[in-house]
Amino acid sequence: MTRVRFTSSLLLAMLFVSGCSSVSFAADITFLNETDYPAHVEVSDTSRQAWLDLTIAQRDQETTVQEVIDQGEVWVFRFDYAGKHEQEVEFSRSELERLDWTVEVPQSFGDTLQRLGVEPPP
Predict the structure, then answer these.
(1) Helix (H) or strand (E) holding 92
(2) What are 91's strand-pairing partners?
(3) Mean per-residue pLDDT of the chain
(4) 53 closest CA partner among 78, 73, 87
(5) Whole-number Å distance between alpha carbons of 29 and 102
(6) Whose CB has fewer CB within 10 Å in the chain, the N or C terminal residue?
(7) 3-class SS at 6?
(8) pTM here?
């Protein structure tokens, strides 16, 4: 009986791994953040049903993420600072390619936080 369970588990694991191999990855994505605030970055497709946690784009720096799961023809990036403000930006694949897969954290992200009275971190 134990042997059958082990075989079934092994078969399920093999099916899972083979199913995951169809996941495609995009080029590295670089985030340029010229605001005064670090930005938590997530990405989704146009459905916005599932968000993939990518990185913290540090202020006044470039942050590169490698092997991002392909989101299809339209990529939606969401920027957040400490739950105080969220902002989304949408790009087509062709726009991202033209931008050499470099996404700028919108200056309006930092401007809105300042208007809300949120102090930048030290």
Answers:
(1) strand 85-92
(2) 75
(3) 87
(4) 78
(5) 6
(6) C
(7) helix
(8) 0.80
